[in-house]
Design goal:
This protein is α/β, with parallel strands linked by helices. The protein has helices at about 120-130, 140-145, 160-175, 190-200, 225-240, 250-270, 290, 310-315, 320-330, 340-360, 390-395, 405-420; strands at about 5, 10-15, 15, 20-25, 50, 80-85, 90-95, 130-135, 180-190, 210-215, 225, 280, 300-305, 365-370, 395, 400, 430-435. It has a domain at about 300-435.
Length: about 425
């Protein structure tokens, strides 16, 4: 593979890592700063000379705590490419969309000026034989809060349009890296998976990808326009913002404080949805993706872990568990096992499995379902939400190790087969159990 890559925006020089040629911090849009901070992204400006793509970019501004990742900046719209060395092109392309409740996460460097990524997918690329792309998209107030009703200078669902811009860059330039622009699979987990369902229903995303893998998606986490207006007004109170012009002067500390207060407010009102979920505005999203996506003919692999909600119920004090069930309006079945586990199972069925099965019942295209049933070693939480990620990518993530796990070989074989051939290896309409 040539050391220098020629794209339509300029030349790029990568480096060798984990048996791959890696290119980090490639701009796929103009920096969303100043007047562009709350607008849909614009194409990047061409650059002169050779871009040294050996350091990760900053990550989006995000909520603190939880899965928060450091090195945050408004200037975050960059992507990374991982290409197996000595692979025969054109390679199937896989584009990863991270989750994080639309409020945290990132594909950039964990430490400024380094190549240390949270999602280092070089090993995954080599073991699947695919060209793999990761990218940032804007989060919380910049990516998904509905500010348009305040002023027409604010756009809506910016995070989704960041994803579309990244996919356009991939479609236009991935052949220069050895990837096949006519064989692009998007795959994402949690909010990232829900974003894929949204993209599958958006006209602006038509033709930008050919297959989809949706992992543990929060399928119903979208707000109506009316709900989003209520939420935005509450958020602005917590942020101390009275005029639209003040939004552009918010500092990161005030945003983090407002994010925490607002997220707590949404949950206290009995709403299990992510507090910064995208908005069904009638323009960018014309209907709830769960309904709109059924008319798609894109091959779809969709599934979940067996104990998704274990991650969310673990920190709830035992006396508060019945209150959580009532507040979120879920029915806890009687039976063996602790009330905590039965509540977790009820939430897993209600939030993840039920809407997934509703999609599959009417989906027009080819579709397969998977169930991930491999407890994460050393976690003590079973097979919880996101527990497949360190195993799938063979990396350290969330404080857990996925290195050397044999289930990871199975996962990568299935994901790679689907990306390359459009089938996971079992009959269409059937469910594959991954242990």
């Amino acid at each position: 593979m040539n050391k220098i890559i020629h794209t339509r925006y300029g030349d790029i020089e990568g480096f060798e890592h984990e048996g791959c040629r890696v290119y980090l911090g490639i701009p796929f849009a103009k920096p969303p700063v100043g007047e562009l901070a709350f607008r849909h992204p614009l194409p990047p400006s061409p650059w002169a000379g050779v871009l040294k793509a050996d350091k990760g970019s900053a990550n989006p501004i995000q909520s603190s705590g939880g899965a928060h990742i450091g090195n945050n900046s408004l200037d975050c719209l960059y992507l990374n490419v991982f290409v197996p060395e000595n692979a025969v092109s054109p390679l199937p392309v896989m584009v990863w969309i991270y989750g994080g409740s639309y409020s945290h996460g990132g594909a950039g460097a964990e430490e400024k000026g380094t190549a240390k990524l949270q999602y280092d997918l070089a090993r995954f690329a080599r073991k699947t034989g695919c060209a793999v792309v990761t990218f940032n998209y804007r989060l919380n107030i910049y990516g998904f809060l509905n500010l348009r009703f305040l002023d027409r200078s604010f756009d809506i669902n910016n995070g989704l349009y960041d994803q579309i811009m990244a996919l356009k860059f991939v479609r236009e330039n991935i052949s220069a890296f050895g990837g096949d622009p006519e064989n692009v699979t998007v795959f994402g987990q949690s909010a990232g998976g829900a974003c894929i369902l949204a993209l599958m229903s958006m006209k602006e995303a038509e033709g930008l990808f050919d297959k989809a893998i949706v992992q543990s998606a929060c399928i119903e986490h979208f707000f109506t326009k009316k709900e989003s207006l209520r939420n935005t007004r509450q958020y602005l109170k917590y942020a101390g913002v009275k005029k639209p012009s003040e939004l552009k002067a918010l500092d990161e500390k005030r945003i983090c404080i407002a994010n925490e207060k607002y997220s707590g407010w949404v949950l206290r009102h009995g709403d299990p949805r992510c507090a910064f979920s995208p908005v069904i505005d009638g323009v960018s999203l014309t209907d709830e993706p769960k309904r709109a996506v059924i008319d798609s003919h894109i091959p779809l692999l969709i599934g979940n872990t067996t104990q998704e909600a274990n991650l969310f119920t673990k920190a709830v004090p035992s006396p508060a568990l019945p209150f959580v069930a009532r507040n979120l309006k879920v029915r806890v079945r009687k039976g063996l096992g602790s009330y905590r586990q039965r509540l977790s199972d009820a939430l897993t069925r209600h939030i993840y499995i039920r809407p997934q099965l509703e999609i599959l019942k009417e989906y027009k295209g080819k579709a397969w379902r998977y169930i991930y049933a491999h407890p994460l070693p050393g976690s003590g939480m079973g097979c919880f939400h996101a527990s497949e990620l360190p195993v799938l990518f063979d990396i350290s993530l969330m404080g857990f190790e996925g290195h050397g796990d044999k289930t990871g070989d199975k996962l990568r074989a299935i994901w790679g087969r689907f990306a390359g051939k459009g089938t996971p290896g079992w009959k269409e309409g059937k469910t594959g159990i991954i242990k």
